[in-house]
Write a structure and sequence with these properties.
The protein folds into two domains: 106 residues, Jelly Rolls; 79 residues, no CATH class. The chain starts with a strand and ends with a strand. The protein is built from no helices and 15 strands. By secondary structure, the protein is mostly beta strands. A hairpin with a 2-residue loop joins strand 10 and strand 11.
């Protein structure tokens, strides 16, 4: 059996202010056998944060907004982020090493890696990276990452945040529409948050 599959952007990276809610774009599910929402989030500053709610909803109606039902409702991004300015001039596309002034908060625990957020001057060009180790070379602190950055990033204003998360949530077969809500009201005096959502679908079986 062959499957026809496709992925697409749904909500580009954007800042969610403290005590604000981001309602994501609605995805139509009636054209697919399977729909998965891929949700990426990261803290946007170093304010202590007790969490942001992520609500993934599905609907039994093709257009009526009265019938949204929670598929998943959970809290993420608990903690206080460490951020560092990128010192590479510029950080080249495909680079697997990032030069920073301080490695505090970016050390990788034994047996694991660390997901982090790379904030670009153009927010939509930001990306998630997976830190595999840190190193000090000729007096310079470096963050070593798994896949290399997707695109070039400018010096000094690009910032890393060490509290980030990503989730893949499947919508049930029979769902007509879906969306993601990022609810940053959970902590009344916490941090700002960045979020992005993509969608992948199985649209044909043969």
């Amino acid at each position: 059996m062959a499957l026809t599959m496709a992925g697409a952007a749904l909500d580009a990276w954007a800042l969610i202010a403290q005590n604000a809610v981001r309602e994501g774009a609605i995805v139509t599910c009636s054209d697919s056998y399977q729909t998965i929402l891929h949700v990426d989030v990261a803290l946007g500053n170093t304010t202590a944060h007790t969490g942001t709610r992520i609500i993934v909803e599905c609907s039994s109606a093709a257009a009526d907004d009265e019938f949204w039902t929670a598929r998943q409702d959970f809290t993420a991004l608990v903690g206080t982020a460490n951020t560092e300015v990128v010192l590479d001039d510029p950080l080249a596309a495909a680079a697997v090493q990032i030069h920073v002034a301080d490695l505090t908060g970016f050390a990788v625990a034994t047996g694991g890696s660390l997901l982090a957020f790379l904030l670009d001057n153009t927010v939509a060009n930001s990306e998630l990276i997976r830190i595999t180790s840190t190193s000090v070379e000729v007096g310079n602190d470096h963050i070593n990452i798994l896949d290399g950055v997707k695109r070039e990033h400018a010096v000094t204003t690009t910032v890393l945040s060490n509290i980030a998360a990503t989730y893949a949530i499947e919508l049930p077969l029979g769902t007509l529409r879906g969306r993601v809500i990022i609810d940053n009201l959970y902590d009344a005096d916490g941090a700002t948050v960045y979020s992005r959502t993509r969608v992948s679908k199985v649209t044909a079986l043969s």
